[in-house]
């Protein structure tokens, strides 16, 4: 059986989940559900990044220990599974000493054995927000390009990884397509960086400065830095490095990852540093990195300081999981920045969920549930027009192409074109004016369209697809149709 291993990036636990991580989780969930439905053996991993000075500071501000703080926040991220109807298989936490730490230690030791780890005193420009060192040319007027705060001059003794040694090979792997970067603009961005050559990176911090993390094997005065710690989750989460070799079966089955799905701000870590670490460790590199953009709020980047952060959980409580999934998949182009406003959300909901899908489903099921439309399975199959079947096949083909290319917004668009096709068919054929076999033929076509929509909808809006499917029952030789509930009541 074909295998497919997909990961989200792991969320940093210094604050509650925001809508940007919800977008990434939903995009990954669509891919996982879509390929499972195609008969592929899928493994879907997500998790939390729980070490570093920002976590320690956030815990202290709340009057909690780091462990208490990350346990609490990790649960909030785990709760997204139910809130957003996610289908991940496992949730990895970097503070997990049993599941995660052994893999990190194993990677460190492989890099050290290769002669790719060395110690030196380093002076550089450091962003506390990113917990990362930057070169002057990477900064924008001396400030971090992400947090817009001036970088501090820091001097300390750290361990370094010889990333520069692997720069050329990473570049070749990306150029050859062995490591696929989607979209093309992000591929060009990382190739431009690689052309200049990657520099060696600091992979530890002094324990007296950052006391919350994984100690360097054989040197407790240093803690392993985020690059090796956080990135290793993609293999620790499937058992790499664990004592019980049974746990490594998942790694042997699914690695290398088919897709790492990430935000554009961490591209260089996933397409530069991570492949370098894997090459040094003698492990296969991932096959693809899919990169999404930011969600803006009314044209502005969301931030706690501005107070414009949108909670996905609050949105779900107000509108339902599938309405949130739909907006994020339809409104936000998969690889670009997109804008959230409550008005845009309500417009999509009323215009396309209530008036579109909800209305079409209700019309068909109401018309088909009448006594004069009862039909056998044989009649149902015989009555469906070849032209309708071709229209559905075309839509399925388009959706597959769009999903494979990570253009989920276009896949949803193709599906909504089928709903429009169905609506036009109802209006043109006017089944309420027909009788007998003529009416049955039209209703067979409409039921066929609705069932096809339901099947195509399942990876995107799983709860809604399930509700519609329950109203169309196939009992051997007879079909049973029920009206069902109002899927998306109009918002006033």
UniProtKB/TrEMBL annotation:
Note the superkingdom of the native organism. Answer: Bacteria
MF terms from GO for this chain are: ATP binding; methionine-tRNA ligase activity
Q: What region holds the Methionyl/Leucyl tRNA synthetase domain?
A: 138-365
Q: What Pfam families would the database entry show?
A: Anticodon_1, tRNA-synt_1g
Gene3D superfamilies found in the cross-reference section: 2.170.220.10, HUPs, Isoleucyl-tRNA Synthetase, Domain 1
Domain Methionyl/Valyl/Leucyl/Isoleucyl-tRNA synthetase anticodon-binding as annotated: residue spans: 388-473
Biological process (GO) annotations? Answer: methionyl-tRNA aminoacylation
Write down the InterPro entries for this protein, in alphabetical order.
M/V/L/I-tRNA-synth_anticd-bd, Met-tRNA_synth_2, Methionyl/Leucyl_tRNA_Synth, MetRS_core, Rossmann-like_a/b/a_fold, tRNAsynth_Ia_anticodon-bd
Q: Give EC number(s), comma-separated.
A: 6.1.1.10
Catalysis: reaction(s): tRNA(Met) + L-methionine + ATP = L-methionyl-tRNA(Met) + AMP + diphosphate
Q: Write out the entry's keywords from A to Z.
A: Aminoacyl-tRNA synthetase, ATP-binding, Ligase, Nucleotide-binding, Protein biosynthesis
Which family is this protein grouped under? Belongs to the class-I aminoacyl-tRNA synthetase family.
Q: Which PANTHER family match?
A: METHIONINE--TRNA LIGASE, MITOCHONDRIAL, METHIONYL-TRNA SYNTHETASE
Protein name, as recorded: methionine--tRNA ligase
UniProt organism field: Candidatus Wolfebacteria bacterium GW2011_GWE2_44_13
> What does UniProt list as this organism's lineage?
Bacteria, Candidatus Wolfeibacteriota
